[in-house]
Amino acid sequence: MSRPDAQRFPASVFGVGSEPDARFTLANERTFLAWIRTALALVAGGVALETLGLDLQPGLRLAASLVLIVAGTALPLIAWAGWMRVERALRNGSVLPSSIVGVVLAIVVAVVGVLVLLGVLLR
What we know:
- The protein has 123 residues and is mainly α.
- The chain has helices at 11-14, 22-51, 58-92, 101-121.
- Helix 2 (22-51) packs antiparallel against helix 3 and helix 3 (58-92) runs antiparallel to helix 4.
- The termini are far apart.
């Protein structure tokens, strides 16, 4: 008879270690879902910035919009990888890995802020 964990997706996560306390697994899932909501907000912000046609320098407005949309598209993939790393660590009883998602998001927000500021100043 096969292990029930080996039938869960992704097997690379659930096929290792032992089942952790459900509270930690659910907290990890809530964090992942929070990053998904953030990704949706980034995409919506990028679309809104370009669609509303604010009085910004058009090239910089487009660049800021594209940064937001690209980041919002990439963020779920980064968040998924982070969720898997944390879940594996929980299942193996090892130290939790650090997260790169916050750093990536901080850089994106800073770049967009600079582009919008320049767009205002150079219109």
